[in-house]
Task: structure prediction
Amino acid sequence: MKRKMKILLSVTVVILLVVMGLHGMNELFIPEGNEVCMNYIKTFHALPERSAEVMIYGSSHAWRGCDSREMYTKHGIAAYNYGCNWQHMNTTALFLQDSFRTQRPKVALIETMAAGELLQDVDLIGEVYYTRAIPMSRGKWEYLKQCFGNRLERYLTYTFPVLAFHDQWTSLTKGDFTALKNEPENGFHNFGFMDIKEAQPQTMPDHTLFQQKEICAEAKECLDQMVALCRENNSEIVFFTTPYIWEYPYAQAMEEYASANGYPYLNLFDSMEEIGLDSQTDFSDGGHLNTSGAKKVADYLGAFLKEHYELTDYRNDPDSLWTKLLGEK
Result:
């Protein structure tokens, strides 16, 4: 009997060591670009509770396209950018839900590039992977079920990414090991905004000729969930779309959806001249604004928010978090 117990204990210890080893190796197999996303998510969770009056959500079009620092500098708005790369609409909905665990913004700015697109029945990809940095909740569990369905191996690779990204062994460098200690550059002091200064001249299409699509029922249900959460927490919504060089097919559908729910929709393709966006200097690539363009968008959106909502001007408070953060840079 004692011998069996020793064997059982030994097997248990070996299994625990293997699990711990796999867990410890996870960071070596982060898909390219995801370590920055995960660090920014962790940075958001260091934000003091109920400190942001405006929250910005969405894909990299929001993350790189709206400089939340400028909202404070020009309008005194305590805004935090909680966007991230890629982001189909159900990923944005998860970020919104996660943020409401600690924040109660007066206004949620929701970017809509992928308004009609959901992640459903997919293997582990970068966009799903970086949600590992978001604490587990009922909403996150529902999100993972929507992404993975009932495929057990997908949940295993999410928990132990080494199983999914083992091919990275062939390209590991010294940097892959030292990168584990890296933190996002000024993520907190940038108010969550991803600062990209490079400029690439672009040729803008005629947005009045974009072919339009309907928003599918599943995507509309996702939008409904975000609306319901904001209403439950007395948060207003402003839907918006930042310009890029490819066709945006959901402008008409978003205008109709926002109007039906009593919210504004700002299609910034329509307002490039008013905003002052220059296709030669304000884009980092065909899909994204650079910091110059993002400042102009933030100024424009900030002015809209101050006109339509009662927001605090934190520039009048030298002890505010936002004043201190900019002062520490």
Remarks:
- Residues 13-25, 166-172, 174-186 have pLDDT under 50 and may be disordered.
- DSSP finds 14 helices and seven strands in the chain.
- The longest strand covers residues 236-241.
